[in-house]
Please model this.
Amino acid sequence: MRSRLVMTALALLAVGAATQAARADGDPVKGAQVFRQCMPCHRIGPGAKNLVGPELNGLDGRHTGSAPGYNYSAANKNSGIVWGKAEFEKYIQAPQKVIPGTKMFFAGIHNHNDIENLWAYLAQFKADGSKK
Model:
């Protein structure tokens, strides 16, 4: 009986750890829903074009101010940021604070799960708009 309880407890711990790991990485399907907030200004995926903001294909590992054909602010071009999860999480909460002078006027996303999910969605796209 005791070994059964121990095995059940270990199984529950393993499920909990797997669930926590999945949350930490974000859910790209949920991130697609969060991205709807971004769509008035940004596009991503095959055939994405610059709008009010730059297209976001290949964002993970891209230098700020480097999307072809987009007219960036000097602040954005010269920020020295290379997009990754940590940089994106800070930026998306308060773009004007992270890059003073950016043209991105957005109040920010403050829900941690939404940010995690949004990054999971964005990071799956390669520079050509296809998914990794």
The chain has one domain: 27-123. Confidence is low (pLDDT under 50) at residues 5-23. DSSP finds six helices and no strands in the chain. Helices lie at 2-25, 28-34, 74-77, 85-93, 95-98, 112-123.
